[in-house]
Design a protein that fits this description.
The chain is globular. Helix content is 40%, strand content 37%. It has one domain (2-99): Alpha-Beta Plaits. 19% of the residues are buried. It has 3 helices and 6 strands, in the order E-E-E-H-E-E-H-H-E. A 4-stranded antiparallel sheet has the order 4-5-1-6. A two-stranded antiparallel sheet has the order 2-3. The protein is α+β, with helices and mostly antiparallel strands. The N and C termini lie close together (5 Å).
Protein backbone atom coordinates (compact mmCIF):
# COMPACT_ATOMS: atom_id res chain seq x y z
CA UNK A 1 0.00 0.00 0.00
CA UNK A 2 1.31 3.46 -0.95
CA UNK A 3 0.40 6.50 1.15
CA UNK A 4 0.62 9.95 -0.45
CA UNK A 5 0.34 12.99 1.84
CA UNK A 6 0.48 16.60 0.64
CA UNK A 7 0.36 19.73 2.80
CA UNK A 8 -0.17 23.19 1.33
CA UNK A 9 -0.09 26.75 2.57
CA UNK A 10 -2.20 29.06 0.47
CA UNK A 11 -1.76 32.64 -0.66
CA UNK A 12 -3.90 35.17 1.23
CA UNK A 13 -5.58 36.05 -2.08
CA UNK A 14 -5.37 34.36 -5.48
CA UNK A 15 -7.55 33.48 -8.45
CA UNK A 16 -10.02 36.21 -7.44
CA UNK A 17 -10.74 34.74 -3.98
CA UNK A 18 -9.41 34.79 -0.43
CA UNK A 19 -7.58 31.98 1.32
CA UNK A 20 -10.70 30.49 2.93
CA UNK A 21 -12.63 30.34 -0.34
CA UNK A 22 -9.68 28.82 -2.19
CA UNK A 23 -9.19 26.22 0.55
CA UNK A 24 -12.85 25.19 0.24
CA UNK A 25 -12.57 24.99 -3.53
CA UNK A 26 -9.41 22.88 -3.24
CA UNK A 27 -11.22 20.54 -0.84
CA UNK A 28 -14.14 20.15 -3.25
CA UNK A 29 -11.90 19.57 -6.28
CA UNK A 30 -9.63 17.12 -4.51
CA UNK A 31 -12.49 15.22 -2.87
CA UNK A 32 -14.18 14.78 -6.25
CA UNK A 33 -11.14 12.89 -7.56
CA UNK A 34 -12.19 9.84 -5.53
CA UNK A 35 -15.06 9.19 -7.92
CA UNK A 36 -13.09 10.11 -11.04
CA UNK A 37 -9.84 8.16 -10.69
CA UNK A 38 -10.41 4.44 -10.06
CA UNK A 39 -6.91 3.71 -8.66
CA UNK A 40 -7.59 5.77 -5.51
CA UNK A 41 -8.08 3.39 -2.58
CA UNK A 42 -8.70 6.11 0.01
CA UNK A 43 -8.79 9.91 -0.02
CA UNK A 44 -9.26 12.53 2.69
CA UNK A 45 -8.90 16.31 2.59
CA UNK A 46 -8.51 18.32 5.78
CA UNK A 47 -8.88 22.07 6.26
CA UNK A 48 -8.99 22.41 10.02
CA UNK A 49 -5.28 21.98 10.54
CA UNK A 50 -4.02 22.72 14.05
CA UNK A 51 -0.58 22.54 15.62
CA UNK A 52 1.01 21.51 12.32
CA UNK A 53 4.72 22.05 11.86
CA UNK A 54 5.26 23.43 9.36
CA UNK A 55 1.95 25.27 9.39
CA UNK A 56 -0.42 24.47 6.53
CA UNK A 57 -3.93 25.28 5.31
CA UNK A 58 -4.93 22.13 3.38
CA UNK A 59 -3.84 18.50 3.78
CA UNK A 60 -4.49 15.68 1.32
CA UNK A 61 -4.16 12.03 2.28
CA UNK A 62 -4.50 9.39 -0.44
CA UNK A 63 -3.75 5.68 -0.58
CA UNK A 64 -2.97 3.50 -3.58
CA UNK A 65 -2.40 -0.23 -4.00
CA UNK A 66 0.90 0.21 -5.89
CA UNK A 67 3.46 2.80 -6.92
CA UNK A 68 2.22 2.40 -10.48
CA UNK A 69 -1.26 3.41 -9.29
CA UNK A 70 0.20 6.55 -7.68
CA UNK A 71 1.88 7.37 -11.00
CA UNK A 72 -1.41 6.79 -12.81
CA UNK A 73 -3.17 9.15 -10.40
CA UNK A 74 -0.56 11.87 -10.80
CA UNK A 75 -0.73 11.76 -14.60
CA UNK A 76 -4.53 11.41 -14.79
CA UNK A 77 -6.21 14.29 -16.68
CA UNK A 78 -8.71 14.94 -13.86
CA UNK A 79 -5.85 15.24 -11.35
CA UNK A 80 -4.00 17.56 -13.72
CA UNK A 81 -7.07 19.85 -13.89
CA UNK A 82 -6.96 20.18 -10.10
CA UNK A 83 -3.20 20.78 -10.20
CA UNK A 84 -3.85 23.72 -12.55
CA UNK A 85 -6.03 25.42 -9.94
CA UNK A 86 -3.81 24.49 -7.01
CA UNK A 87 -0.74 26.04 -8.64
CA UNK A 88 -2.59 29.37 -8.82
CA UNK A 89 -3.47 29.54 -5.13
CA UNK A 90 -0.61 27.76 -3.31
CA UNK A 91 2.27 29.55 -1.62
CA UNK A 92 4.13 26.39 -0.56
CA UNK A 93 3.80 22.61 -0.69
CA UNK A 94 5.26 19.64 1.18
CA UNK A 95 4.76 16.03 0.13
CA UNK A 96 5.67 12.59 1.41
CA UNK A 97 5.06 9.19 -0.14
CA UNK A 98 5.74 5.95 1.71
CA UNK A 99 4.97 2.27 1.45
CA UNK A 100 3.52 0.06 4.16
Amino acid sequence: MIKHIVMWTLKDEAAGADLAANALKMKELLSALRGLIPVIVDLEVGLDVFAASPACDVILYTAFATRADLDTYQAHPEHQKVVGFVKQVVASRSVVDYEI
